Amino acid sequence: MNTQHHVNQQQYQDKSQAYLNSSVHAQGIEFEKMQQCIQAHQLKRVLDLGCGGGHVSYQVAPFVEQVTAYDLTPSMVELVVSQAQQKGLQNVVGQQGAAESLAFADGSFDCVISRYSAHHWQNVAQAMSEMHRVLTASGKAIIIDILGNSHPVIDTFFQTIETIRDPSHVRNYSLQEWMRFAEYAGFKVETIEKQSLNLEFQRWTERMQTPAHAVQTIRYLQSKASDQAQQYYQVQSDGSFTSEVVYLVLCK
């Protein structure tokens, strides 16, 4: 395991319950979109890549034959499998591992879904190639993640506060970067949609157990951010803000 993967595990090993209970992670218009895509294309075997608290697994399990909840952090995988059992979802299995090295045979899945995970990956291009490999010829990849920005002032501000809040953060990618990753991996882009995500500051930092001095630094940076950045992220007086989210459906 490389050093950054170890940082990721350290950051998330005791936060599985927080992510399970997070309303930001439990809710979203994307769940209905996923379910419709799965039903429309009769996708039966799903990989929940970077499963976190398992909300994707719980939402799609009733519509498929099997969901594999996959995460770098063992406690996340254990939580999802146990919660699925409690919810009566007998078709959810778990496996621990990194997105860049999927321990599955070619064509193992009809659908790979990654939701709010890719900004932690060490090598998105490699992970996308792995997603392409494990999908069937008619399979779909669905990616939901917070968008970075091609404007340096806006982008630097957000990447900085994200990293201060969570040292395992790697990068939020712009839409242009996502298009390059998809093309490089051999995917065709089927759907591109944008959503908004409102983040309540106190919950956002408490979920990661961000230390008080780091919280103060983030608030300082918010107060000193350019008007452009403050307006783009709709930064509120309590630090709460809004982010753009991309919903991508890719096919081979």
UniProtKB/TrEMBL annotation:
<feature type="domain" description="Methyltransferase type 11">
    <location>
        <begin position="47"/>
        <end position="143"/>
    </location>
</feature>
<dbReference type="GO" id="GO:0008757">
    <property type="term" value="F:S-adenosylmethionine-dependent methyltransferase activity"/>
</dbReference>
<protein>
    <recommendedName>
        <fullName>Methyltransferase type 11 domain-containing protein</fullName>
    </recommendedName>
</protein>
<dbReference type="InterPro" id="IPR029063">
    <property type="entry name" value="SAM-dependent_MTases_sf"/>
</dbReference>
<dbReference type="InterPro" id="IPR013216">
    <property type="entry name" value="Methyltransf_11"/>
</dbReference>
<dbReference type="Pfam" id="PF08241">
    <property type="entry name" value="Methyltransf_11"/>
</dbReference>
